[in-house]
Amino acid sequence: MSTAQTGSKKSSEAWRNWAGNVTSRPVREVTPASVEELTAAVRRAAQDGLKVKAVGTGHSFTAAAATDGVLIRPQLLTGIRDIDRENGTVTVEAGTPLKRLNLALAREGLSLTNMGDIMEQTVSGAVSTGTHGTGRESASIAAQIKGLELVTASGELLTCSEKENPEVFAAARIGLGALGIVTALTFAVEPIFLLTAREEPMSFEKVTADFDALYAENEHFEFYWFPHTGNCNTKRNNRSTGPEAPVSRVSGFVEDEVLSNGLFQVVNTIGRAVPATIPAIAKISSKALSARTYTDIPYKVFTSPRRVRFVEMEYAVPRAALVETLRELKSMVDRSNLRVSFPVEVRTAPADDITLSTASGRDSAYVAVHMYKGTPYQRYFTAAEQIFTAHEGRPHWGKVHTRDAAYFAQAYPRFGEFTKLRDRLDPDRLFGNAYLRRVLGD
């Protein structure tokens, strides 16, 4: 197959992720227009002795997709292949952005059961790193997968499900790009439904004291704590019989664009330039958003625009350990001279059966810490990570962390199952890179 056919070109520019904290310089980039062209690109990379990695929109804060070999861009592998209403599934090409999937499903009167709070990522990038939202019974995006296709290092196209290649299916739903390149995913979907969102401020002490009840009483509960304050913003999403009552255009523009993005960008820029102002700004920011209730279709409730760029670390701890973990985090910030302008995000997920899912085998709570892009984050993240790991935390695969294979071998009971499968599917580490060497070993 010719270079022109496979959409291959020599790369002269560095690749950067969304946050700008990871760069790499691949030898060439390939934009395949079909699974056949992708398979040819993988085989050619192997023949040339080059590593190969697929990259989505670069929303990971780790170097999971970085390569100095062949970079696969899947933006032509998009769209819905099949909708099976009888079995409640949709099969979608791997490069499809979540945003396009959500819009297309809504037009068909369908929806995913749960989703994360942004939808810019490709479906394959989102599931490969374990992207999740919050839910009492409904889990991550990867946990909603019913089947997938995978191009392996040998150029074979594997079809995987609970019945077909089940051991690959168990691992490849969150495969970190280590087992092969995902070409298509089959998701469970359901008839579209309405969610009522109730957003309101609440004190840190009340949220932590009442957390178990708030979790038990709501299908989807999350909250944000603003460091340097005792203030939180909470959000409860529950299914509704209607009627539909969306956020008004004016209110949506003011709350979601002006306050959550525009003004937030300004105050973070000020805080980066003059860190001493951050505690005072945090007190104002934590009270800027007012209480509101609205009812809409799922993606309009679960997701929101995120235009202010940041760097993030997130750990999953056992749900029972959440309140103690948060109180330790607040105590650490309060007694330090750290200046943190971004809120701490807290979500939950039920246990699942995916080999390297952060919720694998245990009910989990997620604590995410952020710093504004361009602000030194290492001291804050290091102190937070010490707290998270003391509570048996598992870091999000796509977010900043310093853990290695030795740590994960203890944190994940099925870690050896994943690495053995990797040895079988990619013995020569065609899909390897420095990040995978650190987190999986070699």
Tell me what you see in this structure.
The chain is of the alpha+beta class and 442 residues long. 31% of the residues lie in helices and 24% in strands. It is built from 14 helices and 21 strands. An 8-stranded antiparallel β-sheet has the order 17-14-16-15-19-20-18-21. It has a 5-stranded antiparallel β-sheet with strand order 7-8-12-10-11. A 4-stranded mixed β-sheet has the order 1-4-6-5, covered by helices on one side. β7 and β8 form a beta hairpin. α10 runs antiparallel to α11 and α12 packs across α14. The N terminus is likely disordered.
Number of strands: 21
Mean pLDDT: 92
Walk across the major sheet and give the strand order.
Answer: 17-14-16-15-19-20-18-21
Radius of gyration: 21 Å
Low-confidence stretches: 1-5
Largest sheet report:
8 strands, antiparallel
Question: What is the overall number of helices?
Answer: 14
Structural class: alpha+beta
Helix content: 25-40%
Assembly annotation: single chain
Strand content is 15-25%
Shape: globular
First-residue to last-residue Cα separation: 32 Å
List keywords for this structure.
disordered N terminus, alpha+beta, 5-stranded antiparallel β-sheet, 442 residues, 24% strand, 8-stranded antiparallel β-sheet
Task: Walk me through the topology.
Layout: E1 8-10, E2 15-16, E3 23-24, E4 28-30, H1 35-47, E5 52-54, E6 70-72, E7 80-84, E8 89-93, H2 98-107, E9 110-111, H3 123-128, E10 145-151, E11 157-160, H4 166-172, E12 181-188, E13 190-191, E14 194-203, H5 204-209, H6 211-217, E15 220-225, E16 231-240, H7 249-273, H8 278-285, E17 292-296, H9 298-302, E18 310-318, H10 322-335, E19 344-349, E20 364-372, H11 378-390, E21 394-395, H12 405-411, H13 415-425, H14 434-440
Parallel strand pairs: 4-6, 5-6
Antiparallel strand pairs: 1-4, 2-3, 7-8, 8-12, 9-13, 10-11, 10-12, 14-16, 14-17, 15-16, 15-19, 18-20, 18-21, 19-20
Helix pairs in contact: 10-11, 12-14
